[in-house]
Design goal:
Elements: H1 2-51, E1 76-83, E2 89-96
Antiparallel strand pairs: 1-2
């Protein structure tokens, strides 16, 4: 029972040190936990993006659906119409996109993969 009386002043005097260390450890644990959650979220988003098929995008950044069978783009773009003294555009006008050809991956309706079994 005598050791209990020796423990009480040690806790009272050293209590601030223990509190700072515990708070610091909890703060560090919280930061690490948040970082792990951010990493898991980023990994989930990257996996979802990897599962999507490539979008057929032209060199003009418009989707393949905006082009006709000849390759002409039917989207409107903003083109500068007036400039200031520093040659920075001041006013823009909508004009038809002048791209003429689709550049990008061919969308496939079905994918055929040959069997990997050796027929011997």
């Amino acid at each position: 029972m005598g050791w209990l009386w020796a423990l009480i002043p040690a806790v009272v005097v050293g209590g601030g040190w223990v509190e700072r260390n515990v708070r610091g450890a909890l703060r560090t644990r919280h930061k690490r936990k948040l970082e792990l959650l951010r990493i898991a979220d980023r990994q989930r988003r990257e996996l979802e993006a990897a599962k999507r098929p490539p979008e057929p995008i032209c060199g003009c950044t418009h989707h393949l659906a905006k082009h006709d069978r000849t390759g002409r783009c039917h989207e409107q773009v903003e083109c500068p119409a007036a400039w200031d003294a520093d040659r920075k555009p001041v006013r823009y006008e909508p004009r038809p996109c002048n791209c003429q050809q689709y550049i990008g991956p061919e969308p496939l309706g079905t994918v055929f993969a040959a069997e990997l079994i050796d027929p011997r």
